Amino acid sequence: MPDGASEAYPTPDPGLQLIAEGVTELVGFGAAVINIRRGDEFEIVAAYGDETGHTVDGDMTVAEMLGTRFPVSVVTDLLDMSEDWGDIKFVPHEKNTIGEAEGYWVPDTDEDILKDPQDWHQLDELLAPFYDENGELVGVLSIDRPTNGRRPGRRQQRILNRFARQARRAVLLTLQREYLEERANNLLEAQSFLREANSQLGLTGVLEATQEAMSRGLDADGLYVQAQDGEGGSVVYASPGLGWNATDSNNIAAGQAYQATRLWNDGQHAIVNRELLRHALHHGDAEQRKYARLGLEFLDAVEADSLLVVPIGVETTALGHLVLLRGSGRPRWTDAEGRLAMEFGRDFGRIVLTSNAYTQERDLAQRLATADKVHSRLIESVAQELHNPLTALTTGIDAMRHEDRGSTTWFQQVGNLISRSDQLVAMVDDLLLFSRFSDPSSRPALAHVDLTSLLQEIYEQRTYESEKRGIEMSIDVPSRSVYVLGDRSEIKAAILRLVDNALVYTHRGGHVRLYIVESASEAAISVTDNGVGIPAAEQMQVFTEFYRGTSQAIGGRKGVGLGLSIVDRVARRHDGRVTLRSEPGTGTRVSLVLPLANDATSLG
After folding, report:
1. Is the pTM of this model over 0.70?
2. d(CA 362, CA 202)
3. What Gene Ontology molecular function terms does this protein carry (predicted)?
4. Which domains does the chain have, with CATH numbers?
5. CA-to-CA dists, residue 416 to 68, 397, 454, angstroms
6. How far apart are CA 319 and CA 112, in angstroms?
7. What's the confidence (pLDDT) of residue 193?
């Protein structure tokens, strides 16, 4: 390889070399070289001919010119001096003023004295400049020394123009190949980085760790990813500084997800730019105009000019999409880049599955650990709660054996035994309900439930208990029926626990109120009291299984700590919610909020 040759081209480019050979052999010239632009220089990537010439650095054959570089300004100056012969430009020696410029090669001949104006001079030059689709000068074909010693006539000019057009296509393909090879190498690097990323980071962690390598590998100014998280939801990630949040425009995110699924099923990618979107906005049908508006809104949000949408998936399953962005002034995405990125989408799909599998495994382990703790707390709580009433029952039964049947003391012992038995029944009922609601296969038995009659029924059932405790209880329900869709026994069990809690934590002389409030789509069954209240620090914990707060129960004992947890589970099983408002020393209001039933509500 001659001095100054590039290591990128130890041998000539085969396709371009063939064109250089064709110009010399078929058209009749002594030298032809093809140059490709490398920044501010041109590099000779193909050279053919048996001529020897000289530059400012010394003598050099045509073959030795391969790999040498010279400033772009040499070509642009020559073009400024040239005459237009179509794709070929002719520089007559009379205008050529750069004969000794750096990198300029002049054949060694004695043709400085011409016998005829059409004779070829050693400073005559033929050039074919090559421009890309953006109008940038990217290459040039240089031709010298016609074998007949004459300037080309019209027939030779037509042939040279055909060679020039062929050479331009070959140069652009070479540049695209080089670009794609670079992208492919970077892509392989990014894929390797992605594969080595620790899946235990979770999907978001993997994206944070690899987004820079992915952007570099895909030559993107930024990227946006939306992928399934394995639990029915999705993970959304955008490059730092991208200025895009999918939650700010769910329509755009939903549209992208729909298009990505279609693309994955079709094995395709999509290229979008502002020009295409504006055309669709003015000339498309209603659906096309809708997506064009969403697309322009997205491009504006991320300050991009074009984007490449690559579906993410594995086998027949679409898992999300990757959106690659390029800003204004950057080359637009090409189908060749899209095909490369599709492989990346498949590789990324495997990462999504692996990450989701790890996340599910981790969550399962956490749930198992939580279940184990709940199980331990359950055993401990049940053992503690059952120990005292069972001991009291045993003691009471033993004491009755020594009392006269029908005596005052005997009746007192019977009353205590009944109270302890009721306490045990209530605890067992809570445990059975909790067990039932913890079973994933358990579903509410849906029916239309009249809350008005149900609350009236509960009020009548608890009137005796409230009077016994010296607590006033009132009810305020609509005069008409209020229907929800649900399991009547579950809803009744939840309201009973709210009422019982209010009675247990309210002083004698206090007041408990039951009422219903309707909105357009919901009904709230509320129980309020003016009892001891719940400390603010405990209000977020009272719905946790087996949690028993510090508030003192009045005229009764605390339960096993499942009451409000059962209410919360009933609400969630009925697509509802529970709200709580409490002030220590002032009282508490708890509301079970459920969706109203309507004529279209299904019982299936």
Report:
1. no
2. 10
3. ATP binding; phosphorelay response regulator activity; phosphorelay sensor kinase activity; protein kinase activator activity
4. 14-181 (3.30.450.40), 201-360 (3.30.450.40), 443-595 (3.30.565.10)
5. 108, 10, 31
6. 72
7. 61
Cα separation, 309 vs 302, whole angstroms: 14
Query: Residue 129: left if φ>0, alpha if ψ -120 to 50, beta else—which one?
Result: beta
Task: Give tens-digit pLDDT for 145-179.
Answer: 888 888 888 888 898 898 889 888 888 888 888 87
To 10 degrees, the CA torsion angle through 571, 573, 574, 577? Answer: 30
Q: Are 436 and 442 in contact (CB under 8 A)?
A: yes
Residue 73 exposed, middle or buried by CB count within 10 Å (0-12, 13-18, 19+): middle
How far CA 73 is from CA of 42, 69, 433, in Å, comes to: 9, 12, 86
Q: Which residue did the predictor score with more confidence, 194 or 68?
A: 68
**Rounded CA separation 266/10 (Å):** 42
Spatial neighbors of 93 by CB under 8 A, at least 6 apart, are: 121, 122, 123, 124
Is the four-CA dihedral 569, 571, 576, 578 of positive or negative sign?
negative
| CA within 13 Å, CB half, 70 | 24
Token pair of 404 as six digits: 């006269």
Q: What is the 3-state secondary structure (H, E, C) of 244-298?
A: CCHHHCHHHHHHHHHHHHHHHHHCCCEEEEHHHHHHHHHHCCHHHHHHHHHHHHH
Cα 56 from Cα 42, distance rounded (Å) = 17
Nearest CA to 131 out of 36, 45, 39 is that of 36
Element (H, E) at 161: helix 154-196
Instruction: Indicate the residue type of 387.
Output: H
- Distance, in Å, from the CA atom of 128 to the CA atom of 143, rounded to the nearest integer, reads 9
Q: Which structure tokens are listed for 293?
A: 């508006």
* pLDDT (tens digit per residue) in 317-362: 888 888 888 888 788 888 878 887 787 777 777 777 777 776 677 7
36 vs 33: CA distance, rounded Å = 10
Give me the DSSP letters along 426-449. HHHHHHHHHHHHH-TT-----EEE
By the 10 Å C-beta count (0-12 exposed, 13-18 middle, 19+ buried), 535 is classed as middle
For residue 98, give the 3-state DSSP assignment: coil
Pair 412, 568: CB distance under 8 Å: no
CA-based nearest residue to 68, from 77, 87, 55: 55
**AA identity, residue 507:** H
Residue 92, number of CB atoms within 10 A of its CB: 15
The one-letter amino acid code at 293 reads R
How far apart are alpha carbons 218 and 324 in whole angstroms? 8
